[in-house]
Design brief:
The protein is mostly beta strands. It has one helix and five strands. The protein has one domain (about 5-74). The strands form two sheets. A three-stranded antiparallel sheet has the order 4-3-5, with no helix packed on it.
Amino acid sequence: MRVQDLIELLQMMPEDAEVHFTYQSGDHWRTTVAPKVRSVDMGSVEYSEYHRMPKVSDPDWDAEEDTDNVVLIG
């Protein structure tokens, strides 16, 4: 998803609605949890073989793989 896509989707939502993000908690019941969004920042991600998905790059560590600048919602 690109920022423009997110903007278009958010424009269809009520302006006074709270924003949460969802993810699976990893518990036995496969519960989907939804904490409130607390921050929106730019950051770098790199692919993690261990997690099989992108992870946030550590700015104090020399990344072994290519990093991408992305919007991070947390």
